Structure formats: structure tokens, C-alpha cells
């Protein structure tokens, strides 16, 4: 019973840390695969549950906690870097239709190597304004961006966004879950020492 209570207690702590990240990531999903929000939600639950049930062996317990701290901090640091990368890519490789709550996957902005010949002329004609170029080509439709960007660059940008999205959210959730686990284990250990008994 105590084990279940302990798992539920810090399951809530880990979930609480994951919720802000989940809110951010699901509010800015890659247009190429908007259903990814469902995957990240399920993934978060699986990660938090898996970490909550992890128990170091008696022999490894002394070194497990410091390792958990280092791992948690490393995961959060990497997640922060990926979050920055994702934000930059999201702004570069997606565009929202004016007056509509719809976002389109495009290639890599106004980089010539990503643009078709039509796209190069269009972007230069409108002084690198992607929105004006899209409007002039009536590209705010399914398949419309392919008139301006090479299809391979659109799909490459979309897949890159999906990968960074998943990795960033996974590492963020894992990092905070591991730190919650460490805090829970350290608290139990201090309580055991103060009660004059060995850690179970």
C-alpha cells in the first residue's frame, strides 16, 4: 500500500512538470502530422509510469541517486536546446494562413535551395515576404506550398519538426520525472535515517 501511495505521489509530481511542456508542444504541432499531440500525451504517461516503478537494487542505491540527478539535468538541458531549435524551425518552416486558424507546412523559408523557380521569382518579387508570395500564388490550399517549395524540402522540414518535437518533449518529461524520482528517494532515505533504521 505504501509503495502504491509513493508511486502515485510522485507520479503526480512528474505529471505536473510535464503538463506545461505538453501544453506548449500540443499548441504548436507540426502541420505535417498534427495528430502527434496524441502520441506525446501517451508517451508522457508511459515515461512517468516507467520511472515511477523503477527501483534501484540495494547494492546500487548509493550511486543511483547521484546518477538520477545528473541524468535528469542532462535530459532537461538537451530538451531546452531542442525546444529552442524547434521554435526556430517552426517559425521558419511553417506559416499561418491570414485570418484563419490553419498552419501550413512549407520548406525552409526563403532559402533559394529550398525554392522552386516559381518560388524564387515570387519571393524576390515580394521582397522576401513569404505571406505575400503565398497569397499571390493562392498557395494557402492543400498542395499549394509545392508551387513555391520543392516537395522534398517541405517533407524534409516536416519530418525534422516531428523528430525534434518528439525528442524535445520526451527528454523534458523524462528529465523532470527522473528528478521527481530522485527527490522522492532522497526524502525516504532521510526519513529512514532519522528513524534509526536502514532504508528498505
Keywords, separated by commas or semicolons:
200 residues; 6 helices; disordered N terminus; two-stranded antiparallel sheet; mainly alpha; elongated; single chain
Task: Explain what you see.
- This protein has 200 residues and is mostly helical.
- The chain has a domain at 66-95 and 168-187.
- 68% of the residues lie in helices and 3% in strands.
- It is built from six helices and two strands.
- The protein has helices at 2-27, 36-52, 61-93, 117-125, 130-136, 151-194; strands at residues 94-96, 103-105.
- The chain has a two-stranded antiparallel ribbon with strand order 1-2.
- Helix 1 (2-27) packs antiparallel against helix 6 and helix 2 runs parallel beside helix 6 (151-194).
- It is elongated, with a radius of gyration of 23 Å.
- The chain starts with a helix and ends in a 6-residue tail after the last helix.
- The relative contact order is 0.18.
- Mean pLDDT is 76; it is low at 1-16.
- Unreliable spans are 1-16
Number of strands: 2
Structural class: mainly alpha
* SSE ordering: HHHEEHHH
| Mean of all residue-level pLDDT scores | 76
Biggest sheet overview: 2 strands, antiparallel
Number of helices: 6
Quote the distance from N terminus to C terminus: 14 Å
**What is the topology, as strand order, of the major beta sheet?**
1-2
Question: Helix amount, in percent?
Answer: 55-70%
**Radius of gyration, whole Å:** 23 Å
Shape: elongated
Amount of beta strand: under 5%
Amino acid at each position: 500500500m505504501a509503495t502504491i501511495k509513493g508511486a502515485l505521489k510522485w507520479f503526480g509530481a512528474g505529471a505536473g512538470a510535464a503538463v506545461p511542456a505538453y501544453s506548449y508542444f500540443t499548441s504548436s504541432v507540426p502541420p505535417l502530422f498534427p495528430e502527434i499531440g496524441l502520441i506525446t500525451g501517451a508517451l508522457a504517461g508511459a515515461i512517468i509510469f516507467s520511472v515511477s516503478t523503477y527501483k534501484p537494487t540495494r547494492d546500487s542505491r548509493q550511486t543511483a541517486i547521484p546518477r538520477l540527478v545528473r541524468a535528469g539535468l542532462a535530459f532537461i538541458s538537451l530538451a531546452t536546446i531542442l525546444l529552442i531549435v524547434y521554435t526556430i524551425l517552426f517559425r521558419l518552416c511553417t506559416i499561418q494562413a491570414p485570418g484563419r486558424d490553419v498552419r501550413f507546412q512549407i520548406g525552409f523559408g526563403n532559402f533559394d535551395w529550398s525554392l522552386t523557380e516559381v518560388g524564387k521569382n515570387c519571393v524576390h518579387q515580394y521582397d522576401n515576404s513569404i505571406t505575400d508570395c503565398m497569397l499571390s500564388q493562392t498557395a494557402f490550399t492543400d498542395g499549394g506550398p509545392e508551387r513555391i517549395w520543392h516537395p522534398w524540402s517541405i517533407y524534409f522540414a516536416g519530418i525534422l519538426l516531428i523528430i525534434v518535437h518528439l525528442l524535445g518533449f520526451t527528454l523534458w518529461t523524462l528529465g523532470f520525472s527522473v528528478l521527481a524520482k530522485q527527490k522522492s528517494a532522497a526524502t525516504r532515505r532521510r526519513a529512514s535515517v532519522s528513524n534509526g533504521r536502514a532504508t528498505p
